[in-house]
Design a protein that fits this description.
It contains nine helices and no strands. Helix 3 packs across helix 6 and helix 8 crosses helix 9. Helices cover 65% and strands 0% of the residues. It is globular, with a radius of gyration of 20 Å. The longest helix is centred in the C-terminal third of the chain and has 22 residues. It is mainly α and 186 residues long.
Length: 186
């Protein structure tokens, strides 16, 4: 796909057929492996998986470079600001997730620049939806004191009632929203 087709809202993305593709890993085996990774993080780091702290550490470092006194006094950032981002192990988790996703897409020969969207939505609208959804997820992660991986994986594995309510709400909200946006994908 050319850069021009990404920039132009009138071009449609061509989707490769998925039917003939074989998954590189059985999804049940991948889930079991993820459970082992979660167990290892409890045993090695003393806490579960979650990505919000890595982003918080980077944000605190950025604001700290501009306004260190304000950042040190900010209740949402001061805990992250006390230590440099390089000491926050969840930052390395984020980097590893990116590298792992890139390696997976390269191995499966799916690595390419594209914007996936339905035939009834422009690229600009798709990007607006993606940005809005990401912003809402970030706000929700801050309000819930954890991202979906932290809430679902770590909290769910500890049978935390709040985490189970959170995940059930995520799935219910996704199903309800899908009703209203499904026409954009057909």
């Amino acid at each position: 796909m050319s850069a021009a087709s990404i920039a132009s809202p009138d071009k449609r993305v061509e989707h490769a057929p998925v039917a003939g593709r074989r998954a590189l890993m059985n999804p049940y085996l991948a889930g079991f492996a993820l459970g082992l990774v979660l167990l290892a993080t409890f045993l090695i780091m003393g806490r579960g998986l979650g990505a919000t702290a890595g982003y918080g550490s980077l944000l605190a470092a950025a604001f700290g470079a501009i306004a260190p006194d304000w950042t040190a006094a900010n209740p949402a950032l001061r805990g992250y600001f006390a230590d440099p981002p390089a000491t926050n192990w969840t930052l390395y988790l984020l980097i590893g997730a990116f590298v792992g996703a890139l390696a997976s897409s390269l191995l499966a020969k799916r690595a390419q620049w594209r914007i996936e969207r339905g035939p009834n939505v422009s690229i600009r609208l798709r990007l607006l939806f993606a940005f809005s959804g990401g912003l809402l997820a970030a706000i929700g992660a801050k309000l819930a004191k954890g991202c979906t991986s932290g809430q679902a994986l770590t909290g769910g594995s500890q049978l935390n009632a709040g985490s189970w309510v959170f995940m059930l709400s995520v799935f219910a909200g996704g199903y309800l929203l899908a009703y209203f946006v499904r026409r954009l994908w057909r």
